[in-house]
Amino acid sequence: xxxxxxxxxxxxxxxxxxxxxxxxxxxxxxxxxxxxxxxxxxxxxxxxxxxxxxxxxxxxxxxxxxxxxxxxxxxxxxxxxxxxxxxxxxxxxxxxxxxxxxxxxxxxxxxxxxxxxxxxx
Length: 121
Hints:
Layout: E1 2-8, E2 11-18, H1 22-36, E3 42-51, H2 56-64, H3 66-73, E4 76-83, H4 86-98, E5 103-108, H5 112-120
Parallel strand pairs: 2-3, 3-4, 4-5
Antiparallel strand pairs: 1-2
Helix pairs in contact: 1-2
C-alpha cells in the first residue's frame, strides 16, 4: 500500500506498507508529485511499516520518475521518517546527510509525537 495525503498546505504524508507493484508505485508517485506541486518550505511525514522490497516493475517506475522526484526535494525543508525497521531508519538518516537542503530524521514507529514536534519546530 502507498497512500499519499496532504493534511496541510505545506505538508504531505506518505504511508507505505508491504510490497509495491508497478501500478501502485505509479499512482502513488503521481499523487505525490501532484500534491507537492504548490508546496514551499514544506514538511513531510513518512510512515513505513512491514516494508517489503518493491517488485522490478515498481523499481522501473520509480527510476523513470527520478528527475521529477529530485526536483520535489527542493519543496521540502524537513522529512520525518517513522518506521518499525531499524535499517530503514538508518537509511533515512544517511539519505538526510546526502541530500543538501532537506533535513531527514528517523523515529521509531511509536514515536509519532516526537516526529510531529520535530516537524513543527
